[in-house]
Amino acid sequence: MITAAVLGASGYSGAELLRLLHTRSDVKVTRCIAASSAGKRVAEVYPAFAGRLDASFEPLELSGFDGTDVTFVALPSGEAMHVVPDLLGKSRRVIDLGGDFRLQSAAVYKEFYHHEHVAAAFLPEAVYGLPELNFEKIRDARLVANPGCYPTSAILALLPALSRNLIASDGIVITSMSGISGAGRSASVDLSFSEINENIRAYKIGQHQHLPEIESVLGDATRKQVSVSFVPHLVPLTRGIYTTVHSTLLAPVSDDDVRSVYSEFYHHAPFVRVKEEIPQISHVVRTNYCDLFVKVDPRTHQLIVVSVIDNLVKGAAGQAIQNMNIMFQLPQNEGL
Amino acid sequence: MITAAVLGASGYSGAELLRLLHTRSDVKVTRCIAASSAGKRVAEVYPAFAGRLDASFEPLELSGFDGTDVTFVALPSGEAMHVVPDLLGKSRRVIDLGGDFRLQSAAVYKEFYHHEHVAAAFLPEAVYGLPELNFEKIRDARLVANPGCYPTSAILALLPALSRNLIASDGIVITSMSGISGAGRSASVDLSFSEINENIRAYKIGQHQHLPEIESVLGDATRKQVSVSFVPHLVPLTRGIYTTVHSTLLAPVSDDDVRSVYSEFYHHAPFVRVKEEIPQISHVVRTNYCDLFVKVDPRTHQLIVVSVIDNLVKGAAGQAIQNMNIMFQLPQNEGL
Amino acid sequence: MITAAVLGASGYSGAELLRLLHTRSDVKVTRCIAASSAGKRVAEVYPAFAGRLDASFEPLELSGFDGTDVTFVALPSGEAMHVVPDLLGKSRRVIDLGGDFRLQSAAVYKEFYHHEHVAAAFLPEAVYGLPELNFEKIRDARLVANPGCYPTSAILALLPALSRNLIASDGIVITSMSGISGAGRSASVDLSFSEINENIRAYKIGQHQHLPEIESVLGDATRKQVSVSFVPHLVPLTRGIYTTVHSTLLAPVSDDDVRSVYSEFYHHAPFVRVKEEIPQISHVVRTNYCDLFVKVDPRTHQLIVVSVIDNLVKGAAGQAIQNMNIMFQLPQNEGL
Amino acid sequence: MITAAVLGASGYSGAELLRLLHTRSDVKVTRCIAASSAGKRVAEVYPAFAGRLDASFEPLELSGFDGTDVTFVALPSGEAMHVVPDLLGKSRRVIDLGGDFRLQSAAVYKEFYHHEHVAAAFLPEAVYGLPELNFEKIRDARLVANPGCYPTSAILALLPALSRNLIASDGIVITSMSGISGAGRSASVDLSFSEINENIRAYKIGQHQHLPEIESVLGDATRKQVSVSFVPHLVPLTRGIYTTVHSTLLAPVSDDDVRSVYSEFYHHAPFVRVKEEIPQISHVVRTNYCDLFVKVDPRTHQLIVVSVIDNLVKGAAGQAIQNMNIMFQLPQNEGL
What we know:
homotetramer; alpha/beta; 2 domains; 7-stranded mixed β-sheet
């Protein structure tokens, strides 16, 4: 039996972790920490759990983590780094779903997150938790930085083409559309139904904190200087990320050629499906799949890749559990 | 030229007033009061107005209202009653879009609004601003209490049947579904897209503040003791109210009989359409129409009436402007 | 191992059956029949199944059903009755998700379904598959008529109050809102996104085919003459039914009294949750739960009950599987 | 008084034309042609017009167009070219809202529309009806090809930068998201609410018929070889197009520099707003505005432009009326 704690359990990612974990017979969630809801029953905040999950949110007390096998940290970026160092002395493994340990450079972190990193000493040991890239490092990691939702979709879309030298590493254009749950569970006029419904908006153009994550992970993985332009959009649906990537082909290839490269690259990846039809959000929602589609545009010598995930599953809680499964040498898709 | 002020201009009803008024050549909006946005340009808060409406939100200063022909008060219920008494000495006419002057009884007001009425002395003079009921009183009123959105749909649905003694005045069941803009422009997790989308919820069952408004207006108009059960629901759309009313027929009648009664009753009402097909929100959205449909259920001896409006137009700003038109002896549908 | 066939597997209810069955280790889906999609792979029509369900849709050939333990018939009403008689000689058990075997009277069937019943001889043997009502009959039934989505929500809302003589059996008003998947997977302008989005409409007022189902099942169960008025509405969400019921209390009671009656009545029902807060669609979506909420309106002597389900789960495929579980003496919630 | 006919009046663009024209005192709609709805009243098909527009749909008879000042052709692409040649002998001016006369090359037309052009002789005389580009030609044109919705947003986004030599004319990436009304009013499972809601999909990647329209109009206007990669997406809202364009800067510039170029370029264009904040669909919906936002990404030397319109207004009916206004020497924004 794996003992697991969830820190920040009342947000959307935290609740998704509970949803995916509470039916497993091989995992026991020992702690549901949520400072803002401490003392309330989980089913009070998320009535969907009534009759299924008998637990209460607790305040944060680090003493309670002693001997926990794995702790999922689903705190907002900027909060996790205050807690993780202490946690690492208590919980055997830590999987942080936020952005605090994804960038190797504290300077870049400050530039994009707009505050100092207070636990930069732990950055070198953090393993970027993308199983399709770092399976073996994840297995042995004490601290896993679970990838961001946009980066998960974008990196999986680009990794084969860059690794196999099909495309140039600069001039990459990433356009993403995200469901609103990606903005978290918060009170904000900007996220209210009346403002989001029948509306679309781009935001943080060229300044989103996931931009350096995409560039650095792809750069480190392929030993290239990767340069991308990234524009995220909010669209009126709850779950899902739809990412369309344009890049410049280095040599003429066919759709079939590229699809073969992708299929082979992800041959052992149980959650990546290289599709022959254009994927849709509905194909992956509430699953841990990433569906990919490749298309060569011979007129413009571009490779276009479509990449689709559920932001709360493969883009957050599902991938975190996939990482846990790897750590504990379970099948990657156990419970997913 | 009618000079008009809008107090509480940055909420959804206030913005709808500006949308409907700013193109009129016979009305000049002299003041846009919005304490929370004071100093900002209207087009900053509502970018749709860019290039069309060159005005700024101002803080509340009563001195500025001297000699204004009409002031629309679009403040939350409970705030208007603190301002209206002073306004009445300055602005020639006042139309309050909130609930503070709709009930004749300060005791009932306290029961349903959960605070004391501080301007009860002004209740007797307030005219309930439903033009289909109170056309002549509105024309001469100094203070009009613009009807609530649910009551507008429900009262228009019931007025002919009760007035013509087709139905019993008790045992009336009103079920309403409202778009989310009816809840106002506010930061709240409960109103966030992720909570509202793909969801429905009833609220304030049997306790909504519009309940006594419906009963008292219908009761006064028909000199009957009217008793209704009212359940409002929030459904995932931005605009519109869909109200379905069940009542008990006093004698057998046909659909055609009832439709004739309704058509005749609203013969002079330019904004009520008695339809032969079941109406839909899309038929009335962004208009000042109320679409009605009547259906006799001979099995259960019930009269079923469907009533549909746009909550921000006939349910708020449009009806307020209809009232202004009546006050200034313009065609009721001027600018609507 | 239970062998199961699905007839009409390419509609929304059929696909939901496959979704719920394909991960079970104790059930093997041996046949996916879908005439309109015969020859296509399931993952071609429903790409969400790619990599998870390796099966193809087949044309209907009754010979293939010999010895099947259970056949789920997810055909449109009016088609099932042409097939079920032959099926009953081959498949050990048949669960029909449509309306053909829910009414005991072929005459009432014709009145509300607008065509003759061609298999009326099988009506007496069909068991109405509402487990909270007919657990033991379902266990032994050869033919189960799985309840309609609206009736499931309405009957569960009313059964305790009628059975315990809390309310009058006439004058009952049922108002329901349904997600659009309830209308099935079909090409229709009326169901297109542009017509449904930002819209609400009532339909089949007083004439819906689920009306006699509600009345006859409640009447038979409580040995009363039950008379209801029923208005269904389409609202812009994909899944879920929200039903609000008004009825007349026979004697004064408190909310707590009624809640106790309901809680006790459903004490052994694993999928009915009697809640203390008003339920929402989001609390039950993708689950087999029915959430109930009771509220006494002392002003009008009415009992108001809110009842919420997922139309494709408790209102269709989930309840069918619950019935299968009962037939094969498994825990009711196995795989749900 | 301008006499106007609408051909194809029952589709979404046709209905939007009626909505925008029926309140004008200087335009009289003399014919509403809609073969599929011939004989029905407009208010029967679009109940929103009840009490406001007293007209019926008629079958197509060319004789009826004699002497009409202007005819709007809102037929599907491929149908207009069969009618327009005859119309030009009868109606003084013709504005075609479809794609049949937008491309100068019949060969390219065949490649992207997948059928032969049967009226290629009329291509040279057709004027591309983008007022911001062809104001004077439109004024004098007998036949105007009203721009496509995607091209309107994309061309307005790129015209200033290409004309002023700020960006390279190749390597342009256009990503667009469209509301579903852009797909027209048709019965299709793919466009049904249950398939579109909570979903996103890209389509016709690199093959959309608007691609050559964008390239050829920009190429002709700037005398450059323009090459773009274009991916359209369907997102779950009814109206609006959101286009995000990436291009390569030819020399370093600041955001302010580019914004000045754009503001000056569109100085005389009443419907283009160059904004300092990122625009949203809600800012332009139901208006004829195109909102533009420019952003230099100094890291990648790219210019990012966001362009937002209402697909049924500036992307169809509104722009057609703007063209009519220009033809008849009215203010461009008359009635818009």
